[in-house]
Amino acid sequence: MFRSFVWGGFEGASHRRADGVRVDSIAGSGHEGRARLHHAMLRSLGIETIRESLRWHLIETGTGRYDWSSARRQLDAARAAGLSVAWGLCHWGVPDQHDVMAPSWPSRLAAFAFAAAEWLRTEGADISAWVPINEMAFWAWAGGETGGFAPHRHGAGDRLKEQLVRGHLAAVAGLREAGARHPIMVCEPLISVVPADDGASALAEAASMMEASFAAVRQIRDVNPAAIDVLGLNFYPHNQWRTDGVRVLPGDPGYRPLRELLAATAHRFPGLPLAISETGMEEPGGVEWLARISAEVEATLAAGVRVVGVCIYPVADYPGWDDGRHCRCGPIGHRQGMRFVRAGHGAVIAQLAAAGKVAGMLHDGQGQATALQRK
Q1: How many Å apart are CA 114 and CA 241, to the nearest integer?
Q2: What are the contacts of 372-375 at 24+ separation with CB within 8 A?
Q3: Per-residue model confidence as pLDDT tens digits over 67-88
Q4: Pick the CATH number of 6-371 from 3.20.20.80, 3.40.50.720, 2.60.120.600, 3.10.310.10
């Protein structure tokens, strides 16, 4: 389904913060100007599939008018390095002329999806997948409950999530109308919440949070099961916590290993291929974290759970959303204008790729396992 088992993902957040500042991680990380170098570095590490984001707020200059120049370097760099791209359409960023809560918003996203598919087709782009909207569950919380992201609402998380589901369905329709037949990937947080005590309130709160994390996936599949081909799961060290807000770390009571979370998700959505669509840890713990992920993925594959890819995300340093601080993460680091591959990342990427080759199993449409062809 994908060119390589290990992917590299470039931070593509482009939302408006509560203070009105527009985040543009592609520009802030330097990826905008150094995409060719970044892509070549990933290819040298054996990575042939990447996640990139189209910056809708820059591309749609007026309603229905599109300028693709902001994506040109990303596209040309991927072509030069021979990489296949999973393109994100809306990474929390919406053009200022559109209101994500407006009834017309899903149709505007559908029009953008159609136009994006048409442009990339005319460019002969190597497309591995589409991600219509990144992390609907998180956006519903950040933009609909806390007001931290646009549309800056409070107490409207469910309404925003329903609107995002409509947007996803409309975008898929737009892509298919344009003739795009690539896999549709939903990327949602993979979390675990445990009650802080044995009280009924804490138990109910934990169950509610866990249910909310997959609500968008369930709603999409209830309307159109064909609107999701791959369930992407974003998993970070901070994705497990107690209902009182205390983080649950490896070794703590209540911590659930990744293999257990993946098995539970596969059981919940039988027949739907899974991908770890984002994972990583800020330095100095990046290599250790990826080694842990590799071991968990190997165990998951050995247990017969279908995982079709693992994306290191972000794959390069980027500025923090809130304060612009230099977040050191992924195999591509930078300092004083110089880009470099961090020590140890090449070996752990090779280890992760080996886990996909040795323990990976592909399943045909009937669910029968066939051994992954060895090179």
Answers
A1: 39
A2: none
A3: 999 999 999 999 999 999 999 9
A4: 3.20.20.80
